[in-house]
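Hi everyone, sorry if this is the wrong subforum. Our group has a chain we'd like a structural model of before ordering constructs, and none of us has done structure prediction before. Sequence below.
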Amino acid sequence: MQSVPRDMAPGLDAHEIVATVDRLTRRIRERFPDAHLVTVSEQLAETVREAKRRIDTLARPFWAVRLVSGVLILAVVVIVATALTLVPLSTGPLGLADLIQTLEAAVNDVIFLGVAVFFLFTIERRMKRRRALAAVHELRSLAHLVDLHQLTKDPERTLGLGQRTPSSPRSELTPFELGRYLDYCSEMLSLIGVTAALYVEKSDDPVVLSAASEVQSVAASLSQKIWQKILVLRSLQDWHSNSEPTPARQP
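Answer:
Right subforum, don't worry. Here is the predicted structure as tokens:
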């Protein structure tokens, strides 16, 4: 079986994700024009658009950072090399104490040079990582916001089962509307997980990959909880329809 080159492998299309979120926002607005879920969906649409811009920025090299880092690395190397040339060399034989002191100073200089070069060489990667993590954490907060909006959407309460208390949330949705509301929430969580995957599609940073995978796991877990509500709603609808008394047949 012939493998597909990585640069030719199919990937996520940010434009399609944006179009999908916009279409979902219109569907929610048409079905529930006064619901706060419309605002959440609009916020998700803006987040996806911002994600596309951020990903395009992170995919490009930070030339200014690379130039400054290169100049600083060269400066550090020149300073260390100059300092070594200025060290007076002993013409006589070195004693054990002098040899140990010289080796210790050389090792310290090498360690300092290595740490400085490593810090400057990886500064671009760390800047990109910090921006990507901030965006991924924003998606995680949005996933919990979606979960918060469906928290009080209870199938039993919608079907009028059980006794309400003075503090019980009001249920103004029909069973069909509740099913659509929960389905919209599930779709939004799926889109949040897909958007998180955009940040690691062209990145090999293990920290960003771990954060994006965690967001996908959270979104999938919350979506599964919503689908459990949908299944309960359907089961209760079937039970309620089957338990209704059938009218007696006229002779």
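For your construct planning: Residues 12-161+172-239 form one domain. The longest helix spans residues 206-243.
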